[in-house]
Amino acid sequence: MNAPKVSIGLVNPKSPTNVGAVLRAAGCFQADAVFYTGERYDRAERFHTDTQNRSLAIPLQRVNDLVSDAPESAKIICVDLVDGAIALTEFEHPEEAIYIFGPEDGTISQAVIDQADAVVYIPANGCLNLAATVNVVLYDRMSKTEHQLATNEQVLAIRDKNNRVRVKS
């Protein structure tokens, strides 16, 4: 397998529901891999929540350290509510990146933040949960780069089989 161009790093995720939703976001927005640290997810993994079986196509791998185990050419981008972070709306995504997200009940450590190439936050009137944050960041990346998903053919290919609604001209 080639080195991932876009990957997600999760710091000690606790919720199998959120990890399943992160895998779904990775598939929807073309991330190549999901890495995680800690043991909480391993203990909760039996509550399978990858409803679209994205883990069959997108590697989900436990690592010891998200920074040292990051793909070699990837920029380290931390996403958290951190003093001095850049608003996602103002952020220019690098071509190759690992986006590191903190746990649902904590934050990214200062040691990881200090090694980041950039730290960004999502401007909002509250904090989003882990899966929602990953979705927003990956969508922002896709919307700011050349992408091939914004076509009517894509809508037809991915919509639910029971959806036959259309916009009249």
Can you give a write-up of this model?
With 169 residues, the chain is α/β, with parallel strands linked by helices. The chain has one domain (6-158): Alpha/beta knot, CATH 3.40.1280.10. The chain has helices at residues 16-28, 40-44, 110-115, 130-144, 152-158; strands at residues 6-10, 33-36, 60-62, 75-79, 86-87, 97-101, 118-121. The chain has a seven-stranded parallel sheet. Helix 1 (16-28) links the parallel strand 1 (6-10) and strand 2. The longest helix has 15 residues, at 130-144.
Comma- or semicolon-separated keywords:
single chain; about 170 residues; alpha/beta; Alpha/beta knot; 7-stranded parallel β-sheet; 5 helices; 7 strands
Question: For the residues shown, what is the average pLDDT?
Answer: 85
Name of the CATH superfamily: SPOUT methyltransferase, trefoil knot domain
Specify the number of helices. 5
Largest sheet: 7 strands, parallel
CA distance, first residue to last residue: 45 Å
Based on the structure given, which CATH architecture is correct? 3-Layer(aba) Sandwich
User: Pairing-aware structural class of the strands and helices?
Assistant: alpha/beta
Portion of residues in helices?
A: 25-40%
Silhouette? globular
The first-level CATH class is given as Alpha Beta
How large, in whole angstroms, is the Cα Rg? 16 Å
Give the strand order, joined by hyphens, for the main sheet: 3-2-1-6-4-7-5
* Strand proportion: 15-25%
**Poorly predicted regions:** none
The CATH topology corresponds to Alpha/beta knot
Number of strands: 7
Number of domain modules: 1
What's the multimeric state? single chain
H/E topology pattern = EHEHEEEEHEHH
